[in-house]
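seq as requested:
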Amino acid sequence: MDARTSRLGILAFSAAEISGWDAFVAELAKQGHAVGRNLVIERQYWREVGLDAAASALVALKVDVIFAIGGTPPALAVKRATSSIPIVFESADPVGFGLVSSLARPGGNLTGVSMQGSAITSKQMESMAAALGTLKSMAYILPSGARSFSWYPSYVAAATAAATALGVRIEFHDVSGLAGFEPLIRQLVNRDINAVEVFDGGTAAGIDYERVAALCLRYRLPAIGPARLGFLLECRFAAELIEQRLAYFVSRILNGAKPAELPVEEFSTLQLVLNMKTARALGLSISRSLVIRADEVIE
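struct tokens:
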């Protein structure tokens, strides 16, 4: 180890959530911060212990920078836990969620990448329609409290616009905790809703995506959500490109830059991910054209 070894803290839901990791580490090394030479990485996973507990544990390690993986909820948790340790995040609406004062002048101890979600909302509905062959109805499931967030009206507007263009009837539902999912999913299936999208919406409670994906599969309900955790499909921002940009922010901070002086970058490159194992379990025959369009296919 070099004498000036830096310590980077990683906060994520689970090890499986860290996509684009190789690109992130490679970019850090390119910027002069190599694991095993002058960089130590500390990880905290909040799946079992809870988000705030994991964030506090990471702050207690007194790392030099914290990288909050998985969108807005972990970034907010770390922000609650520290006002001094620099934080790098990825968020759909960092200004609306209160992570930063503005994109150009973040202020405080946070900066990172902004990923506007309206394009994802439209592409995910289009992809689900292509996967099913026909899509007449779709439900959006969010944790209780999501409607109070500033991004909610634009989320509904994006979904409504996509639904109007495709002739899909949509509805929105709130759930409180994991226990609320099964009765709702059962009700949606009984009402012949064709598909659902599950989204944590940046709420502090978050969603146990793996368990919810398993419930959707049990009731044979095609669902949009993290494909690596068992959902049929998702559209996401290009993970490797995002991780490279996030590594750039981490490196700049490790080199002495202040988060408040690093403008948040807006990102728009989308990727489609299909989980063919889930498709087979649902009895779906995905068209070859959709498979070819996919940027990642999980077998």
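The chain has two domains: 6-116+237-270, 118-235+271-298.
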